[in-house]
Write a structure and sequence with these properties.
The relative contact order is 0.22. This protein has one domain. Strands 1, 2, 3, 4, 5 and 6 form a 6-stranded antiparallel beta sheet that branches. It is built from 3 helices and 6 strands. Helix content is 21%, strand content 33%. A hairpin with a 2-residue loop joins β1 and β2.
Length: 102
């Protein structure tokens, strides 16, 4: 199954950011890869959004500078993780924030 598009979501947990990657497939189904290494499948994008929101994640591309500051980082100083594959991505799915820096 090919991914039609990808979106990053982020949640703050103390001084740690936790990332989740949402992929919407060509079929309309959605998959969320989380910081535990699990991939959750949903019937559609709306169901995936609801699950992420219930877990207190926020869409990274919807954050503004004030939202980022509330999570403890400067929006222009941090980007979603990247890697060649999910195994290499997994250790990058959490980001420790330096205290006193936002």
């Amino acid at each position: 199954m090919a991914a039609a598009r990808e979106q990053w979501w982020v949640a703050g947990l103390g001084d740690t950011l936790v990332w989740a990657r949402l992929r919407v497939l060509d079929s309309g189904a959605a998959e969320v890869f989380d910081a535990s290494g699990a991939t959750f499948r949903y019937d559609d994008e709306d169901a995936a959004h609801a699950a992420l929101l219930d877990a207190e994640f926020r869409a990274y591309d919807g954050l503004d500078a004030e939202d980022a500051a509330a999570l403890g980082f400067a929006l222009d100083a941090l980007a979603p993780p990247t890697a060649e594959n999910d195994a290499a991505l997994l250790p990058r799915m959490t980001t420790k924030l330096a205290r006193g820096h936002a």
